[in-house]
Specification:
Belongs to the AIR synthase family. The protein contains eleven helices and nine strands. It is an alpha+beta fold.
Amino acid sequence: MESTYKNSGVDIKAGEETVNRIKGLAKSTFNKNVLSGIGHFGAFYQIDLSQWKNPVLVSSVDGVGTKLKIAFALDKHDTIGQDLVNHCVNDIAVCGAIPQYFMDYMAFGKLNPEKAEQIIKGFSIACKENNVALIGGETAEMPGLYDETEYDISGTIVGLVEKDKIIDGKNVSYGDILIGFKSTGLHTNGYSLARKVLLEKFNLNDKPDLIKNSIGEELLQIHKSYLKLITKLNEKVSINAFSHITGGGIIGNTKRVVPDHLQIKIDWNSWEQLSIFKLIQEVGKISDDEMRNVFNLGIGLIAIVNKNDVDKVIEISKEVIEEGIIIGEIVK
């Protein structure tokens, strides 16, 4: 038999079909700054410099880790794209940046155009919600590297911030208060431990007493975007720092924006821990310290503010239907 690219595992026609399927989804996110359509070697995005005095580019790249394993098992692929966009958006929004555009990378063992379309659908939903343009990406087929039913995704976000409005934690001071905002679940971190613990005892369709949805539904809860909240707070009050709670938990992430001579004191009983975390800890017999090091435990974003601004921050948060919870303080 003649050796061809297709019988070695790469289907060019499937790639072309995928591009045709996703063109409309990507274009639905475009704004006036996007100069190119899908198909060029590079994507073009024009910055309206009349709106900026001293703009700084802020970028971040990420994946969704082994949360993908849950999507594979449930054959549900339309939400992990939202997870990825929202995760990336939060990572630059906490620096004060306004997200501009997003680019994706998808690598398949065997390219399934319908599956790829579902992933991109998730990207496009979140991009529109965050006012971000999905201006390009890469889809690769890698037989032998990935299982035929599996894939990996990553994304890159680029935003802009005025240089004098960068939020980097340099203003964090002794006595500042930590205000936490709720997560929707695990977001995109801690899945290797959660899967090991839960799937030894349950299957994804089980509904243990502690949780209201099935385990699969709980584990696929969409990583929340805090962009509206962060933007609203930045407009009305001076925030000393924000912390996006991802891998490493509340302390591990928040200490990035706290000067070395100061420490973080958390009241771990100040909010109701989400039931999915209670289930993981109970089933896995996991210590409090390990839970705090791995998971967000129900707090996805923290604002560090001057104690005189606490009431104002909590009131402003209500305008975007968010509940601000005092969860700790900065100590010496």
